């Protein structure tokens, strides 16, 4: 079996595409006092538009759309479906606070309130894999002065955050 | 005696410091020695030893040479069958001092052979989720039957020559060695199937338009091209795997393109027979355009192009192009093309700025393409050399951004109803600037892309940033509602997320393009940002611009290496930048500099314990000292509150005596500061940077101090600076304008103000 698409994709990439690589960045900060995860996700607008256009009948242009409330709902649903947290037994759903546009980027803000500091949890990021097999999703975690980064790709999109990472002295 | 005493004192202080350091390690085993790991160590081991080909100054040496390769080609495009046929006569001039037993020829199209190893170069395994068309392409379809079919290789007498093909490289064996200074003529005949570049995303091929049944061809890397032989690589015959672009020779080209009679063609070089291939009206407009400096002249209008789409001529026409001193040749051909051009004055020359696009590109392309070409020629010429070629053509090809001499393919397509978003618009303007800009790097400053992707992509992306900003100033209506052009790359802040990323997926800039994880930030964004920081923060615009121009002019129409660039930037500016290249280009280190703490200290009338202990250890007393000033921090046990009061001269008899003896109190140029601070700065990141600090004083005034990068040369982790001032310091900010790509600004303030994070700020705004 020859993986034609892969090779040709890279052939093209040497030049310059709209953005050369498909990358999103999700930064998560654990605030221990509030037992809250502050989640900021940054995606390319055109990636997001293409993925939404697959689901919806109408072509969506996020920035130009009249009602941002409606857009917020779509963005929220998509993010909640594709950035997920669980501890093996139960999954946690974050609140979607809102989003802003910055040039060709969309930055979304989410907040996940936990009842207690979890023993451990898993984070899974599947943004855009249904459209872009080469999508890379970077996850930065910060808890106190501790930092951890993951690179999620379609073949490995879930990561475990160990307990000792979240337990720290402020 | 006085001098003697003084020197003992100094020696003892030095000795004291050394012995403290030695003691701290004395509990365990002796610390072993080490090599020179100083961040300011010169790059002698990394850079090639200078020689007579390439000098230590970064300029070409007295024995510098490069091969000359001239091509005379007859090419035929079969639109209906999507095949390309070619016969090329090559004249190879061996300017090297060496005799050559064989020549290497690049067969880039062979990357599309069914069995090309490049198709199997990745090893990520199975994907749990795939786009349907990808799945079908990968597992259901036969791979595309591409690659060169070589009919023959013949010498000047028409006798066959022996050749061997290894993937994308063909070795032609010579019956006898080609000696230094000799010339060899030979010919190659070939053909290949042209791929659809939209379906399998290639740099060359065609786009099919089902509505009208036409194709738009953008054809490049389409003929066997001589590999480079030089003093650095010998034969540069590293295989073409897809990412590392090209290493090519300069030469002169005469190319006759046979295409369907109703096609419109643009190509590298000057059209030799416009009267034959253009209609009377088109020819008249073509002449008019040569002196139209204010706006483009339409050679083929949209209405005319739409009319052409309908006929499918079986007749043929031959378009002849000649190009001098180019490294490659490419062309675009279709019935669908709208064609416009205008003249732009660069130095003493009139250059043609040209756009070629199907109606699907409008209304965007008629509005911005030629404007972007003109701006690029002007800004790049200003920073390098006057654009030496007669024209620059921007061709619209879907999803494509790729450069060739005088011609390039660019994306940016509006929706079917003609509407387009800002992203599409700015994406299009930016890609045109980028690809037209590639004429300078690497088409003219001809670096080896196969080995060093950043040398053209990084320099070009840096120049792209300057050009975009200029474009925004010159065409304010294009950026309505924004304070400047929204450049994706170039601003220091924009590279932070890459440089602070997972180290296992970052490679140094000095890596082969095939072996990096994220080519975009690696070869484009990071070097472009590094150069922008050099220009704005490290060197200053005047020194940088002169050095950058010197590099471009030294290596114009030549083949530079990274060392030639690094050396020239220093040679032309007298700024030692080895530390900068070492950090930014040879490592994946990042910038993180912060303010660690502030100690106020005071002049005191007696020494602190540290000084007393030191004196005691050498059997000295205070009386043995020359006149000295003692200082003390607040939390010292011997600190007295009275030190805070009044003038420092009141707390030191030696100081007062000195002032009196020299009558300094009456000297107007003497200013006695009231406040003394020791400020500690920490460097958590591996990269060295100038330390840019803004001090805020009690009266609200601010002072900007830039400590040179060299401040870090003896301690890579922490430095302490003394500030003596008449005013109290109430705030300190490191890198206040965010110009160093500092990845963590949370330690950049004193007093430590957490400040509102971006997240908290967003939340706070929500509540309002």
What does it look like?
The complex is a heterodimer of chains A (170) and B (768). Chain A has four helices and ten strands. Chain A has helices at 4-13, 45-55, 68-82, 163-166; strands spanning 23-31, 36-44, 83-86, 91-92, 95-102, 105-113, 121-125, 136-143, 146-152, 158-161. In chain A, the strands form two sheets. Chain A has a six-stranded mixed β-sheet with strand order 5-6-2-1-8-9. A four-stranded antiparallel β-sheet of chain A has the order 4-3-7-10. Chain A is globular, with a radius of gyration of 17 Å. The relative contact order of chain B is 0.08. In chain B, helix 7 crosses helix 9 (453-474). The N and C termini of chain B lie far apart (75 Å). Chain B is elongated, with a radius of gyration of 33 Å. In chain B, strand 11 and strand 12 form a beta hairpin. Helix content of chain B is 26%, strand content 26%. Chains A and B meet through helix 1, strand 1, strand 2, strand 5 and strand 8 of A and helix 2, strand 22, helix 7, helix 11 and helix 17 of B.
């Amino acid at each position: 079996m020859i993986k034609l698409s892969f090779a040709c994709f890279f052939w093209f990439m040497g030049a310059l595409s709209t953005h050369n690589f498909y990358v999103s960045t999700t930064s998560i900060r654990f605030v221990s006092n509030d037992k809250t995860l502050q989640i900021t996700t940054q995606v390319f607008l055109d990636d997001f538009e293409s993925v939404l256009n697959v689901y919806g009948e109408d072509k969506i242009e996020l920035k130009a759309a009249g009602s941002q409330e409606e857009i917020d709902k779509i963005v929220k649903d998509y993010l909640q479906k594709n950035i997920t947290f669980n501890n093996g037994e139960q999954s946690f759903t974050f609140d979607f606070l809102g989003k802003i546009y910055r040039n060709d980027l969309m930055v979304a803000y989410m907040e996940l309130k936990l009842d207690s500091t979890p023993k451990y949890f898993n984070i899974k990021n599947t943004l855009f894999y249904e459209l872009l097999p080469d999508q890379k999703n970077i996850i930065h975690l910060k808890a106190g002065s501790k930092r951890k980064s993951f690179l999620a790709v379609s073949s490995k999109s879930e990561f475990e955050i160990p307990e000792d990472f979240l337990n720290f002295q402020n | 005696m006085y001098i003697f005493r003084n020197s003992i004192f100094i020696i003892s202080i030095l000795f004291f410091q050394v012995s403290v350091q030695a003691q701290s390690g004395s509990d365990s085993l002796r610390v072993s020695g080490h090599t020179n790991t100083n961040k300011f160590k010169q790059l002698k081991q990394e850079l090639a030893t200078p020689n007579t080909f390439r000098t230590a100054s970064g300029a070409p040496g007295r024995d510098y040479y490069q091969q000359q390769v001239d091509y005379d080609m007859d090419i035929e495009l079969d639109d209906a069958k999507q095949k390309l046929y070619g016969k090329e006569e090559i004249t190879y001039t061996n300017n090297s001092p060496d005799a050559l037993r064989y020549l290497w020829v690049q067969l880039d199209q062979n990357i599309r052979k069914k069995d090309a190893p490049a198709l199997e170069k990745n090893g990520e395994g199975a994907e749990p989720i795939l786009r349907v068309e990808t799945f079908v392409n990968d597992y259901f379809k036969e791979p595309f039957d591409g690659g060169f079919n070589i009919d023959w290789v013949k010498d000047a007498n028409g006798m066959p020559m022996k050749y061997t093909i290894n993937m994308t490289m063909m070795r032609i064996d010579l019956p006898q060695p080609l000696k230094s200074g000799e010339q060899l003529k030979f010919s190659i005949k070939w053909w290949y199937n042209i791929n659809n570049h939209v379906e399998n995303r290639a740099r060359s091929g065609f786009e099919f338009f089902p509505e009208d049944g036409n194709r738009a061809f953008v054809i490049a890397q389409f003929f066997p091209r001589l590999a480079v032989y030089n003093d650095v690589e010998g034969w540069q015959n590293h295989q073409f795997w897809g990412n590392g672009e090209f290493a090519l020779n300069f030469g002169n080209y005469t190319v006759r393109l046979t295409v369907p009679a109703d096609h419109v063609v643009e190509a590298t070089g000057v059209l030799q027979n416009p009267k034959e291939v253009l209609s009377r009206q088109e020819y008249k407009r073509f002449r008019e355009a040569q002196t139209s400096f204010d706006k483009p002249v339409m050679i083929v209008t949209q209405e005319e192009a739409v009319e052409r789409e309908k006929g499918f001529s079986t007749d043929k026409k031959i378009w002849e192009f000649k190009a001098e001193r180019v490294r490659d040749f490419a062309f675009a051909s279709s019935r669908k093309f709208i064609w416009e051009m205008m003249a732009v004055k660069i130095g003493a020359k009139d250059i043609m700025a040209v756009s070629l696009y199907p109606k699907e590109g409008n209304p965007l392309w008629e509005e911005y393409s030629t404007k972007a070409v003109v701006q690029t020629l002007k800004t790049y010429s200003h920073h390098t050399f006057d654009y030496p070629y007669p024209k620059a053509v921007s061709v619209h090809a879907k999803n494509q951004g790729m450069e060739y001499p005088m011609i390039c393919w660019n994306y940016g397509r509006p929706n079917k109803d003609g509407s387009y978003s800002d992203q599409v618009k700015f994406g299009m303007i930016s890609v045109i600037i980028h690809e037209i800009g590639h004429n300078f790097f690497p088409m003219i400053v001809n670096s080896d892309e196969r080995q060093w992707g950043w040398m053209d992509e990084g320099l070009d992306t840096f120049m792209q940033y300057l050009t975009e900003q200029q474009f925004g100033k010159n065409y304010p209506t294009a950026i309505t509602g924004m304070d400047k052009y929204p450049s994706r790359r170039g601003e220091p802040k924009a590279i932070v997320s890459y440089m602070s990323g997972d180290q296992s997926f970052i490679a140094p800039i000095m890596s082969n393009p095939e072996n990096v994880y994220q080519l975009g930030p690696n070869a484009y964004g990071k070097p472009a940002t590094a150069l922008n920081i050099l220009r704005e923060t490290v060197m200053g615009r005047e020194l940088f611009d002169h050095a950058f121009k010197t590099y471009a002019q030294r290596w114009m129409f030549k083949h530079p290496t990274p060392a030639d660039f690094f050396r020239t930037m220093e040679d032309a500016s007298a700024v030692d930048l080895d530390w900068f290249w070492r950090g930014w280009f040879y490592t994946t280190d990042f910038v993180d500099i912060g303010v660690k703490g502030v100690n106020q200290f005071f002049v005191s009338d007696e020494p602190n314990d540290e000084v007393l202990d030191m004196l005691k250890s050498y059997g000295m007393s205070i009386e043995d000292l020359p006149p000295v000033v003692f200082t003390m921090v607040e939390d010292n046990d011997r600190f007295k509150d009275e030190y805070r009061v009044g003038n420092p001269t009141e707390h030191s008899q030696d100081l007062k005596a000195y002032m009196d003896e020299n009558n300094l109190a009456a000297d107007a140029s003497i200013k006695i500061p009231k406040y003394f601070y020791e400020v500690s700065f920490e460097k958590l990141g591996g990269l060295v940077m100038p330390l840019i600090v803004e001090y805020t004083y009690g009266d609200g005034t601010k002072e900007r101090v830039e400590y040179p990068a060299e401040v870090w040369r003896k301690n890579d982790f922490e430095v302490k600076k003394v500030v003596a001032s008449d005013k109290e310091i109430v705030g300190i900010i490191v890198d206040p304008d965010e110009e160093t790509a500092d990845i963590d600004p949370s330690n950049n303030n004193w007093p430590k103000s957490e400040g509102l994070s971006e997240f908290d700020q967003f939340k706070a705004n929500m509540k309002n």
